[in-house]
Amino acid sequence: MARVFVYGTLKKGQPNYKHMINTAKGLAKFQGRGRTVEKYPLVIAGKYNIPYMLNIPGTGHHIAGEIYSVDEQMLQFLDEFEGCPDMYQRTLMRIQVVEWEGKGGTGEARAAADGVLECFVYSTATYPPEWVGLPYYDSYDSSGKHGLSYVLRESR
Fold first, then answer.
1. If we measure between CA atoms, which residue out of 34, 54, 57 comes closest to residue 44?
2. Considering the entire predicted model, what is its pTM?
3. What is the fold, at CATH topology level, of the domain defined by 2-128?
4. How far, in Å, CA of 153 to CA of 133, rounded?
5. Quick one: which of 8, 41, 72, 94 could link to 54 by a disulfide (CB 3.0–4.6 Å)?
6. Which residue of the set 72, 80, 82, 101 is catalytic?
7. Per-residue pLDDT tens over the stretch 79-119
8. How far is 23 from 77, CA to CA, in rounded Å?
9. Is 82 a catalytic residue?
10. Are strands 64-70 and 28-36 parallel, antiparallel or unpaired?
11. Which catalytic residues are annotated (predicted)?
12. Which of 11-20, 46-55, 98-107, 127-136 has the lowest mean pLDDT?
């Protein structure tokens, strides 16, 4: 099992959460909520209003999201879904645990106890330079005040 931190459309209540609970794609178990230890820019960009975490550590905000434990099948699905490695790159990042529901071995308990976990995160280092000038968010909601509604793949 691998740990994945999601901050965009894959979170509970967001348009692509259905993929996280579709066991035909693999297993994803919600573990808790967290935020990035480093600051990153989270922007909403492109004609489909997709959330992107730009891989520029030290700029932006501590990004809020959810921590999942996923099996290899789900990790492979997520790589494909996220267009990895072209659109997003899957990298390890340090995530501060805000709220922990996860059950598991002593390793997980110890990691959560000190408050920081290493999780895979889909961020991007391959983006148009003008995206750096977009507004930065600390949390993503597809129907947030930003007014930039996410366009589902089925509707593109």
1. 54
2. 0.92
3. Hypothetical upf0131 protein ytfp (3.10.490)
4. 26
5. 41
6. 82
7. 999 999 999 999 999 999 999 886 654 445 445 556 899 99
8. 11
9. yes
10. antiparallel
11. 82 (proton acceptor)
12. 98-107
Cα–Cα–Cα angle for 109, 103, 90, rounded to 5 degrees: 80
- Whether the CB-CB separation of 93 and 119 falls below 8 Å is answered with yes
Per-residue 3-state assignment (H helix, E strand, C coil) for the chain? CEEEEECCCCCCCCCCHHHHCCHHHCCEEEEEEEEECCCECEEEECCCCEEEEECCCCCCECCEEEEEEECHHHHHHHHHHCCCCCCCEEEEEEEEEEEECCCCCHHHHHHHHCCEEEEEEEEECCCCHHHHHCCCCCCCCCCCCCCCCCCCHHHC
83 C-beta neighbours (distance < 10 Å), count: 13
Q: What pLDDT, on a 0 to 100 scale, did the predictor assign at position 46?
A: 94
